[in-house]
Amino acid sequence: MHAVEVNQHPGLNLTQHSDVHVPKNATVIFGFWIFLMSDMVFFGLMFAIYITMIGATADGPGPKELFDFTSLALQTGALLLSSLTAGMALLVLKYNQRQRTMVLWLLATLILGLTFLTLEVRDFIAMFAMDAGPWRSGYLSAFFGLVPLHGLHVTMGCLWLVVLLIQLSIFGMVPKLKTRFMRFALFWHFLDLIWIGIFSIVYFGAWTYG
Amino acid sequence: MIGRKQFSSLALSGVTIAALMVAPCPLFADTFLEPAGQIASDQRSHLLWVTGITMIAVIPVFVLLPLILLRYRRGRSGATYKPRWEYSLPLEITMWGVPLFLVGVLSLALWQSTHKLDPYKPIEGAGPPVNVQVVGLDWKWLFIYPDLGIASVGELAIPVDQPVAMTLTTDTVMQSFIISSLAGQIYAMPGMTTELHVMADTVGAFEGENTQYNGNGFVGQKFMTRAMDTADFDGWVQKVKSDGVALDEAAYGVLARQSSQEEAHKGLASGAMPSDAIWFTLPDIHLFHKIVGRYHTGKPLPLAAQPGTVEFSAATQEAAQ
Amino acid sequence: MTYQDIFGRLTLDALPFTAFIRAPSVNEAVASTAASIVVVGALTVLFLLTRYRLWGPLWRDWLTSTDHKKIGIMYIVFSLVMMTRGVIEGVVMRTQQAFGLDGGFLQPDHFAQLFSTHGTIMIFFVAMPFVAGFINYVMPLQIGARDVAFPVMNQISLGLTVASGVMLMVSLVVGKFSTGGWSAYPPYTGAAFNPGVGPDYWIWAIVVSGLGTTLSGINFATTIYKMRAPGMTFFRMPLFTWTVVCSSILMVFALPPLSVAALLLGLDRYLDFHFFTNDLGGNMMNYANLFWLFGHPEVYLLVLPAYGMFSEVFATYSAKRLYGYTSLVIATMSIAVLSFTVWLHHFFTMGQSALINAAFGIATMLIAIPTGVKVYDWMATMYRGRIRISVPMIYGIGFLVLFVIGGLTGVILANPTIDYQVHNSLFLVAHFHNVLIPGVLFGLLAGYNYWFPKAFGFRLNERLGRRSAFLWIAGFSLTFFPLYFVGLMGMPRRSFSYTDPAFVPYMIVAVLGAFCIFSALITILVQLKVSIKERDQNRVPIGDPWDARTLEWSIPAPPPEYNFALLPQVRERDEFAMAKIEGRAYAAEGDYEDIEVPKNTPIGFVLCVLSGVWMFALVWWIWWLAALATALIILAVILWTFDIDNEHVIPAADVRKAHEAWLEQIRLTKPVDRDHEADPSNQGLAKTELEG
């Protein structure tokens, strides 16, 4: 039976409480991967729109005038670091170490996520103050269609994490909650991936070629 | 199993369709099935050719299906029954091979015809092309002859056997421009230009229209293309020059607001003009570029300055009073 | 607080009755009648539910159910209701055009609402839920699963789809729907040119139902990939299930472009963005690309499952294996992949280079290859079979004949040079109805007659079924073949009137056809009513009335909540057919086990209501209500996740008892041969005529 567990779900021993849940766990994680693929298409299209609209600045500010790379470096740092802490939390979960350690890693993830959001919102406010909002041009519309969409995902991720932590305190680490943490981690890493795309295309790419 | 009534209803529909199909040909006036130019004529032959080739795959279905249904109906004695038969290499090769071959042939023809009949490709003809700038408005087409200093609405006059080079845009929502007897359609989009090259090879009048729904007056957005010989065309140009009203800002405002061609005619035309056309002289030969440029000022376009909106209609009416 | 703060832009003028009272006309009378039908219909349903005290059962057995079979049935009921409206709209449009020489009785604006709602309803709220309903009902049974992967999410998908459909019904009573067609091209649908509520109704209905469909796609794909019965390898799956694989892939990948297109249009309209506006660098060509990047795969998303249904029907009623299973699988997959490479053919006329047009034209024609292979595979399936021409087969034969004509015109339209001429004409309208009605709808109706006894335990009336099938075939032919000709004669689509008298005879034939279609629909409803009345003579409790081939027929009709008392061990393709031939069907031995099934939950219904409120609030700019609904939606989802003990167990003993009672019933039932398929003696136990 043990071999089956490993095949069903490498990396997470979800089955210490019950063997029955193994196939179900594999199913929910698989479904979540498909959701991420769909979401990836959504982002991919927004990237495509952004690329087609880099030139559509309508005499308004373009990539060269807008970006605060110091703030962006901090945002990137915070988000990448949060991916690391989320990964650490999952390792704790995998090796069945102390739940408190895991919660600490997750709280660190949450704080880094919120830091990212704060910095991002601050950037948006600064842009609005320069009359560089979506109302100004097609280019800025595409920018504000894509970057805050990612921000919205991060916000949802933070909310999700809070809910999971509350559920953890109520139910303890039941198998159902384990797969939820795992899906949360997948989601969080996915947002990191998107951010790398945003950083390379929306900021650097447009700044270089726009 | 199949009732008499059902048979008769099927037969009725068959007969009706057949009757419609053999209906006399003038039905296709003003379309590419009665072409008045080389492009439309090539499009028609391409249509017939594609239909013919595809029939090679279609007709066997019509022939084999009834045969199979008759021969292998349950209860019919003597017919072979092969319940496990599910694969046959020769049949597979035919099933995949024949469509593949047909599509290959059709693709070659598609490739050639698409390039040959590209609407952007200039046409060779007797004499230099006549340049026409086409502006889609709600709900009429404006034709500007920048080289001749004139413009018209409701009537596109062109010399026969001479290429016509059209550049299109709209000053409202997207529209689609077609003169079916001469060539296919092309979209006209605000702030952008597209191109269409046509040439008429017979004298005559052919209807043209917008095919992209753009509001209440959509069905009335038609015009006549009048292909005439060179002398007549020159005469027409002179007449427009002498009888046309100046297409100044006020006149353009009346023209561009949401209204039917008849309403615009009432507001702008003089008695010297035909009932289905409005003629203009062109004080500003850069009008077309100004229309395209309207959307590229880098400033938001207030609704009152956007033709096709209710606000624009109100603003131009106010200006007129 | 002002009026606007509370009610947004909602005023009494939004009701069609107000306009009718102020300025009575035929146009307003039609609008008011339509609105009244919706209101009276809704009130009647509410009254009947109260009168017969059905609220409790409705809530317990249906609205809160997570059983994929019940969800499937609810999808289909919903789509039939919407189809009634869609067909009536089609008839009204045909009637208008029949009288449309220089006028007619409708205002152009009203006509535009009709073609916009007709298209939106038929695609998103008839075809999609009909297909989703069948997938829900049949697919888990075909792969030997006890449920779908995410039963509650399944319920939520249904809720979102229904809420969006209800929005279209609401738009008939409150305010106006979009006039921009089902594709809602900006800038026409932008705030500058259409400031009213119409495009907003369209946007939110599309966004919410699109989300529901994406979730369905995830659900179906996961179910097939992860929950097949032991031994059910991919190449043993029934062909319908294969088409569902493709269809769910299309749902997952093709719905996002639609959601993006609609949401960006919404951002333009609500928050002064400039994605598709005329000014400030907006570009409506992006919209066209996004919409058709969805729109073309959508066609195959709908038609592939219908192909799957026809594959089942042809094999069953020919008493023969499906010819060319592997070919059909490859063809299905090729179509699914190719469908993503052809979207540009919807706008050959946008001014791109000949090279691009030619490339997309050829890609489009490539789809004709696997489609042609399928048609010939189905004919080869019938070849050397023992064909029974029952109702699903009539649809199947009608499909084959009519669909190749649709395929022919598809190949014609794939040629950019011809498309330049017939694009935006009634020729195009005739073409896509020619693929969607014989292709999709006939497949669904064949499936309806085929699987109905499985779902409800009794057969549908055969005579009325035949009558409706013939009416559909005749009605379709009469309506749409004339439109091909009118299209070639140069009539643009979406024209409420015309000036060429030559169109009139064609339009009159078309309206006759439309009434034929309407009576076909009525016949289906009558068939349902008669069949319910005669249900006791037509019961098929054993579950295999057609001597069929796949696993869903190996269980009782209707199936128990857990579908399979014993999970089937699949040894080969057409498992149930082979089991019958080899005499091992209806085996009794096996290890009965406790079965976990999801508990009922109200979350789908709650989200249905809340998302409906949310859409209505957004459409009418009632911001406080929109914010409240948003908060409640998030709260409801969070609260639902706290319910982690959401399964209940059916003990093995109960499962065994029910199963053994059924097996006992089989021993007492007389098997019938195919001569008595439509007899009362057919109780769903086939004296199999299949041969090995």
Short description:
The complex is a heterotrimer of chains A (210), B (321) and C (692). Chain A is mainly α and 210 residues long.
Keywords for this structure?
heterotrimer, A: 210 residues, mainly alpha, Four Helix Bundle (Hemerythrin (Met), subunit A), 7 helices, 0% strand, B: 321 residues, alpha+beta, Immunoglobulin-like, 2 domains, five-stranded mixed β-sheet, 12 strands, 40% helix
Would you give an account of this structure?
The complex is a heterotrimer of chains A (210), B (321) and C (692). Chain A has one domain (2-209): Four Helix Bundle (Hemerythrin (Met), subunit A) (Up-down Bundle). Chain A has 210 residues and is mostly helical. Chain A has helices at 2-8, 21-52, 63-66, 69-94, 99-129, 138-171, 175-209. Helices cover 80% and strands 0% of the residues of chain A. Chain B is elongated and about 90 Å long. Chain C has 2 domains: 1-53, no CATH class; 54-601 and 646-676, Cytochrome C Oxidase, Chain A. A two-stranded antiparallel ribbon of chain C has the order 1-2. At the B-C interface, helix 1, helix 2, helix 3, strand 7 and strand 9 of B face helix 6, helix 11, helix 12, helix 13 and helix 14 of C.
Distance N terminus to C terminus of chain A? Answer: 57 Å
CATH architecture tag of chain A = Up-down Bundle
Oligomer: heterotrimer
Strand order of the largest sheet of chain C: 1-2
CATH topology category name of chain A: Four Helix Bundle (Hemerythrin (Met), subunit A)
Quickly give the structural class of chain A.
mainly alpha
The helicity of chain C comes to 55-70%
Helix count, DSSP H or I runs of 4 or more residues of chain A: 7
Structural class given helices, strands, pairing of chain C? mainly alpha
Mean pLDDT of chain C: 94
- What coarse outline of chain A follows from CA principal-axis ratios? elongated
Say how many strands of chain C there are.
2
| Fraction of residues in H or I helices of chain A | over 70%
The Cα radius of gyration of chain C reads 25 Å
Largest interface: which pair? B-C, 113 and 110 residues
Give the overall shape of chain C: globular
Q: What name does the CATH topology of the largest domain in chain C carry?
A: Cytochrome C Oxidase, Chain A
- What's the architecture of the largest domain in chain C in CATH terms? Up-down Bundle
Runs of chain C with pLDDT <50, length 5+?
Answer: none
Q: How would a crystallographer describe the biggest sheet of chain A?
A: none
Number of helices of chain C: 22
